[in-house]
C-alpha cells in the first residue's frame, strides 16, 4: 500500500529524490518517514515528518536531506543532496496512523547506491 521509487546509482556528491505514494485503504496518517538499511547493518530512521509538519532527521543526514510530503496525495518525498558512499542502502518509506504508536505501513524498499 506504500510504493517507493526513485532509487538508483549516483556518484558521490550527487543528488536523488525518492518518492513514496500510498494507495488503497490508508487513512488518518500522522507520521510519514524514511528508513534505510545499509548492507549488513540494522534498519535506521533517516527522517520523519508529522502531519503538522514537524520533522526529525538522523544526525548523519542533517543539512543534506530534506523530507517533504503532500497530505492530499498521501505522498512523502526525500530529497537527498551531497550523497556519500555511506548513504548506500535500501530505503524504505513508512507511515503511522493517528491511533498507532508504531509504523503500520511499509513500502517495498528502493536501493540507493552511491559510488566513490
List the defining traits of the structure above:
mainly beta, 0% helix
What does this protein structure show overall?
This protein is mostly beta strands and 116 residues long. The protein has strands at 2-5, 8-11, 16-22, 29-37, 44-49, 55-57, 65-70, 75-80, 89-97, 105-106, 110-115. The strands form two sheets. Strands 2, 4, 5, 6, 9, 10 and 11 form a seven-stranded mixed beta sheet that branches. The model has no long low-confidence stretch (mean pLDDT 94).
Give a short synopsis of this structure:
By secondary structure, the protein is an all-beta fold.
Report the count of strand segments: 11
For the record, give the distance between the C-alpha atoms at the N and C termini, rounded to a whole number. Answer: 34 Å
Q: What share of residues are in beta strands?
A: over 45%
Number of helices: 0
What would the average pLDDT be, to the nearest integer?
94
Secondary-structure-based class equals mainly beta
Sheet having the most strands: 7 strands, mixed
Helix content: under 10%
Shape summary? globular
Uncertain runs are: none
Taken in chain order, the helices and strands follow as EEEEEEEEEEE
Q: Tell me the Rg in angstroms.
A: 13 Å
Amino acid at each position: 500500500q506504500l510504493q517507493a521509487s526513485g532509487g538508483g546509482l549516483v556518484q558521490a556528491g550527487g543528488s536523488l529524490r525518492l518518492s513514496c505514494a500510498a494507495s488503497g485503504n490508508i487513512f488518518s496518517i500522522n507520521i510519514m518517514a524514511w528508513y534505510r538499511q545499509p548492507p549488513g547493518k540494522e534498519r535506521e530512521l533517516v527522517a520523519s515528518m508529522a502531519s503538522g509538519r514537524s520533522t526529525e532527521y538522523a544526525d548523519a543526514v542533517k543539512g543534506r536531506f530534506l523530507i517533504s510530503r503532500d497530505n492530499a496525495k498521501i505522498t512523502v518525498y526525500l530529497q537527498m543532496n551531497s550523497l556519500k558512499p555511506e548513504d548506500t542502502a535500501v530505503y524504505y518509506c513508512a507511515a503511522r496512523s493517528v491511533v498507532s504508536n508504531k509504523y503500520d505501513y511499509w513500502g517495498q524498499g528502493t536501493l540507493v547506491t552511491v559510488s566513490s
